[in-house]
Amino acid sequence: MYYFIEPMSEDDIAEVQEIEAQSFPSSWSATTYKRELRNTATSRYLVVRMSSTPPPAQIEPTPTPRWPGFLNHIRAALFPPTSESTHSCPIIGYGGVWLTVDDAHITTIAVDPRFRGYGVGELLLNGLIDAAYDLEAKMLTLEVRVSNTVAQRLYVKYGFQPGGTRRRYYTDNGEDALIMWTERIDAPEYHALLAELRRQLYTRLQRQAEEITPAPESPE
């Protein structure tokens, strides 16, 4: 399978809420999502779509995002702009980030349970990191359940470290939240880490696509 990552639109909200209902005990209303999507000055929301065919032909990206230049070739491989609509492709994950002064706070990230373990969550995290760059954030932060060690391992891999806890943060069961922070994401050391992790992720996703996609028939 191939995965596309692109900005969430209001037309995506119903699909996003279906994944949210399978991932969290409580859900945002459609009105809340619409408000967040319209607040482009301080928030970004993304979706991941799935397709059994390769991405459509690429076109030149718009110049507005401020991606770190040396990451452009990796970003283009992971998040290709397309020349045709991908709205017919189902959404299998989503995430969002808010800017608070210089910090980008990852507010939500979720993957359809059927597609967990295939790198979709890691792909989303990369998209949210790029969204943080676009918002000119200096650091990233998030909360994660103390019991969610799988997610914590992914975040540590991408430079997040524990910075404290929020007692009884989750209202469904009173579980504590672990607060995690990165160092400065504009530092050369973080750029180097991100470039290597993206190389590994791209290799993984390409290998998965090749394993699942049938090889073309030989000409007679």
From TrEMBL:
Signal peptide: none
Top-level taxon of the source organism: Bacteria
Descriptive protein name: Ribosomal-protein-alanine acetyltransferase
Phylogenetic placement of the source organism: Bacteria, Bacillati, Chloroflexota, Chloroflexia, Chloroflexales
Gene Ontology MF annotations: N-acetyltransferase activity
Organism: Oscillochloris trichoides DG-6
PANTHER family: N-ALPHA-ACETYLTRANSFERASE, N-ALPHA-ACETYLTRANSFERASE 50
Listed InterPro entries: AcTrfase_RimI/Ard1, Acyl_CoA_acyltransferase, GNAT_dom, N-term/lysine_N-AcTrnsfr
PROSITE patterns in alphabetical order: GNAT
